Sequence to fold (543 residues):
Amino acid sequence: MNLRLFLVLAAALGGSAACAAVAAGSEPSAGSAGNITEAQVSAATAASAFAALQGLAGKPSAADAILHDPNLERELVDSFVKQLGAGDDRLSGLINDLHLQPKVYQVKGAKDESVLGLEYAYERSVAGRVINPDSRDPYGLSLNFHAKGSVTADAAKNPNNFLDTGITFNLFQAVGGVEPMIFTEAAAAAMNEAVIAATKIPTTGAEREKDPRWAALARAWSTHIRPQALWFVAGSGTLESDQKFANKQWTYGGQAGVSVRDWRDSSLATWLNLPDYPFAVLRALTDQTESFRPSGHAFPTFIGGLDLVDPKDNKDRLAADPDPGAYQRVRGEIAFKTKAALLFGKPVWLAASYRVFEETGASAAIKAAKLDKFEYFSAELDFVNDFSVTYSSGKLPLDRKSDQVFSLGYKLTL
Amino acid sequence: MAKSTPAPPAPSHWSNNNLACAYTWADLNFIKELDTTFDQSEKVTMNQFRFWNNAASPDVRRLDAQNVAAQLAKMFSGVNFAKYESGKSYTTAVDEMTDLLVVATKTVADLAQVVDDNYNFFGEIKPQS
Fold:
């Protein structure tokens, strides 16, 4: 750990036990487990992250310092993760599979200027099987484990106070996409030579498209490709909780979703992507190499589900309505990402998502407490150099209040 | 638990002599998930891919990643003439690629390793383990 990071930790944490362990290189409790399950590691990692961050509660100056020095924030999380996994290859491997992203949240109207947080997501397929392997569009069956959520230094200020841990059983199929070519040894050998030759092209983008080595490959593959739709249906069992596990509920249910892509630059199908039309205009205006054309890579993705929720450990809900019986909930999400414009010669990406959770047949007491419907919107502008600005509004299940939040972030490389 | 000395980093397998690396790079660029030269691609991370949506829930991100993985799987076996390694299948390939695609910090070289583990490309000679 470098001196600067140590000084910031010392100033910000004032001897917090969890972070002292990180600073001194001592072993955290999660690392001493004899037989570590994925669930334990995910929970331990989240809990340790929370414990480390909790030392920053009420220290907006520390968060501000990190906000103004993204490198410092990266170093802090990097050090934390490396120390957590030190000495145990299995734990290191599992931590390396975590998607971790530090964030500094700025809650609109809040007195404190900012709060430091950490998003985590861990997903792993446990088992899989193909139903019809000889089909062009085979079905796949898989069993997945997941743990995801966000923790902040001060749990009361967590704008996305929703942790989700569970298992899912999936049936999926990708319809369309590239169609198989006829195999001959000569064709395969020629393809290998062509690909190796293409790896030596020193250019990218439009310049590479003109290179005959790339053009030959692209022409061969493009004649065999159609739009691709990947759909899935799944059954799941999950534990939803807030950051402190003060409120939690088990959910059992099913979900389905579809993701559509047309990998070609131009086709009739891309003109069906109506949500991308405004951005196609912006791209055409800001990028002289682009003509007006919606993108086949930017079709919205949909997921919907129906859950049975057991609220007997959800204190906030029971305070509003003492009925501990399970209730039905529908949920859905639509998400979208596209290249929005060209700025200073670099692409600016817009990503957005809207999520909704709604109880069917909610009681008058639940409606009066506004616990029957939760909506959450998030949008991010992703600029060059991994810098991003995010706006989110609304609340997720188990959030106590609706927030409007701006956050600054960058992508973390461990 | 006794602390062990950290193992030195494994030597990079990223080379255009490795067909898994070459095809992984070519296919990702063909479907426009990347726009990089072969040499630039080794350390490009998953959150720099076109499909990666930071605003979306992990469920949606996984679905979009699975779509990319399924397309790669179809390209490897359909137009790159690869066969599955012993014990591997379409589902293991899609699942293992998806598991990696949803981790922001994993690299294209890591993805190529998963491809190498799942596929045997025509004319490929693999070291004896």
Remarks:
- Chain A has a mean pLDDT of 75.
- Residues 59 and 257 of chain A are 42 Å apart (CA to CA).
